[in-house]
Design a protein that fits this description.
33% of the residues lie in helices and 18% in strands. By secondary structure, it is α/β, with parallel strands linked by helices. The chain has an 8-stranded parallel sheet with strand order 1-8-7-6-5-4-3-2. It is globular and about 45 Å long. The chain starts with a strand and ends in an 8-residue tail after the last helix. The structure holds D-xylitol-5-phosphate and zinc ion. Zinc ion binds next to strand 2.
Length: 223
């Protein structure tokens, strides 16, 4: 069974607590938190105070996706704010600092992972695989919700799943961007087990049914 991580980028920020409660009620597995700095990506969202506030209102795991330059500067603060997973882009700093950042996340008892932008090949992840509890493969250019799913990322998903099966089978393979009631099938067929959904989740009339569909092993949710 796959897990669904709704992205609160598409939530109503004036009613975040209400949306989190609804998210819990719909049976979602994780809360995906997109942190953007206006530098690594051309958009700005929110930071540690919002993670801290979310932590106060929910026990769901907080899956914090850092789209920030040189994340080593802030990873410990995000863990202390209450993150359960912190994922960092391997394009955002030198390898030495990325490795050190993963160690710092783990040292505080938090799960750590890396993220690959669409143009980053699977091979670029190799130096980090042993330190990963999660690998996030972007299926859109990071920065905005509501973009079109990039189907050509599926071989990368499959490759990383295969490598991680040999290194750490418990490692999550997550996809993010354009996941909806159609594209989720390909993601799961290629080995993804955590699916982020922003606009499709928040736009769904029946969120519980959408969650079941994404979690299901079969295309039409009959699992
Ligand atoms: C994009 C973010 C995504 C985004 C996904 O940079 O990382 O998490 O919220 O939104 P949808 O599901 O609308 O593509
Ligand atoms: Zn994300």
């Amino acid at each position: 069974m796959a897990k669904i991580a709704p992205s609160i980028l598409s939530a109503d920020f004036m009613n975040l607590e209400r949306d989190i409660r609804a998210l819990e009620g719909s049976g979602a597995d994780f809360v995906h938190v997109d942190v953007m700095d206006g530098h690594f990506v051309p958009n700005i969202t929110f930071g540690m105070p919002v993670v801290k506030a979310l932590r106060r209102v929910t026990d769901l795991p907080l899956d914090v996706h850092l789209m920030i330059d040189k994340p080593i500067r802030y990873v410990e603060e995000f863990v202390r704010a209450g993150a359960d997973f912190v994922t960092i882009h391997i394009e955002a700093d030198q390898p030495q600092n990325t490795l050190e950042a993963l160690d710092r996340i783990h040292a505080l008892g938090c799960k750590a992972g890396i993220v690959l932008k669409p143009r980053t090949p699977a091979e670029a992840a190799i130096p980090y695989l042993e330190k990963c509890d999660m690998i996030l493969i972007m299926t859109v250019e990071p920065g905005f919700g509501g973009q079109k799913f990039m189907q050509d990322m599926m071989p990368k998903v499959r490759q990383l799943r295969a490598w991680m099966d040999g290194i750490n089978p418990a490692c999550h393979i997550e996809v993010d961007g354009g996941v909806d009631a159609n594209t989720h099938i390909l993601c799961k067929e290629n080995g993804a087990d955590v699916l982020v959904a922003g606009s499709a989740y928040f736009g769904a009339a029946d969120k519980a049914a959408f969650v079941k569909l994404i979690q299901g092993d079969f295309p039409h949710g009959q699992s």
